[in-house]
Design goal:
This protein has about 130 residues and is mostly beta strands. It contains no helices and ten strands.
């Protein structure tokens, strides 16, 4: 299996809202309180010889892998008016070992992004390394 590294960036998330990653066991990591500036998270996965993505952050069946970015109370922020999580697809990763992608950090209602969210700028980009 090959290790792959991913950086996901939330573009302009709402200030004052906590964001984090969630693994398969509902363990939260990389908690960050947004200032309104772009916010990035780094993840590692493994890709098997059949191209399937695996790892503690990889959710869903093998043919539909994704990961979660939680926000508000879902990110451990007590008293937040938001309880959300964004589902980010790991499908269509091109060949390579390092990738970057970005999503909008704010929903149309002014709260944190949630539900299945598309990547911006054409999807995953292969980065150096």
């Amino acid at each position: 299996m090959a290790t792959i590294e991913i950086r996901i960036t939330l573009v302009a998330p709402p200030a004052g809202v906590s964001f984090c990653l969630q693994d398969k066991n509902s363990v939260l990591s990389q908690q960050n309180l947004s200032t309104g500036a772009d916010l990035s998270f780094d993840l590692q996965f493994e890709r098997d010889e059949d191209g399937r993505v695996r790892g503690k952050m990889a959710m869903g069946p093998p043919a539909q892998r994704f990961f979660y970015v939680n926000s508000g109370t879902s990110a451990g922020q007590i008293g937040s008016p938001w309880t959300r999580r964004a589902k980010i697809s790991l499908m269509n990763l091109p060949p390579g070992r390092k990738f970057a992608g970005s999503i909008r950090g704010m929903n149309k209602d002014g709260g944190p992004v949630c539900a299945s969210v598309p990547l911006m700028d054409g999807g995953w980009a292969v980065t150096a390394g």
